[in-house]
Amino acid sequence: MTWSDAAELTGLFVAAFGAATVLPFQSEFVFAGLQIAGAAPVATLIVVASVGNTLGAVVNYILGRGGAQLASRRWFPASETQMARAERLYARWGVWTLLLSWAPFGDAFTVIAGLMRTPFGLFLLLVAVAKTGRYAVLAWGTAAAIGA
Q1: How far does Cα 74 stand from its chain's mean position?
Q2: C-alpha–C-alpha distance, residues 120 and 62, integer Å
Q3: Which end of the chain is more exposed for a tag (fewer CB within 10 A), N or C?
Q4: What is the pLDDT along the chain (148 residues), one digit of tens a residue?
Q5: Could you please report the per-residue DSSP string of the chain?
């Protein structure tokens, strides 16, 4: 692995991590760009992006564990509307909502999971499955789009 390869994978990790937090990142374009460029095997891209995105969700979980008093802060990863919607869905569907953590509104579920004191192991398992599935589908879609 060259320095350039390491830098590309580090950039993907940072973008994926940021995309799951309050930072304004989009990891899909970075992922697809690296896949199209053949920067690394697709499985490597999926693992790097999934780990980064899952760890970003862990930050949200920790913020949620910090308490509801942080929810009014400007930097909080979910708006009041997102939080209210996530709380309603979490009350109805429980931890299974974490399987939607890959979606744009899914970050709120990861915060709510912390607020609701979801066991960390269960949180990590469900979020990792959701995030990995997201990047696997993205890899498949990118390959289909470029005819690979």
Answers
A1: 20
A2: 10
A3: N
A4: 688 778 999 999 999 999 998 677 889 999 999 999 999 999 999 999 999 999 999 999 998 888 666 666 777 666 778 777 777 888 888 899 999 999 888 888 998 899 888 999 999 999 999 999 999 999 999 999 998 7
A5: --HHHHHHHHHHHHHHHHHTSSS---HHHHHHHHHHHT-S-HHHHHHHHHHHHHHHHHHHHHHHHH-GGGTTSTT-SS-HHHHHHHHHHHHHHGGGGGGGTTSTTHHHHHHHHHHTT--HHHHHHHHHHHHHHHHHHHHHHHHHHHT-
Q: Burial, 116: exposed, middle or buried (Cβ in 10 Å; 0-12, 13-18, 19+)? A: middle
Structural domain harbouring 78: 3-146
Structure tokens at 90: 């979490």
Say how far apart CA 116 and CA 40 lie, in whole Å: 39
pTM of this structure: 0.85
Token digits of residue 110: 């990861």
Domains contained in the chain, number: 1
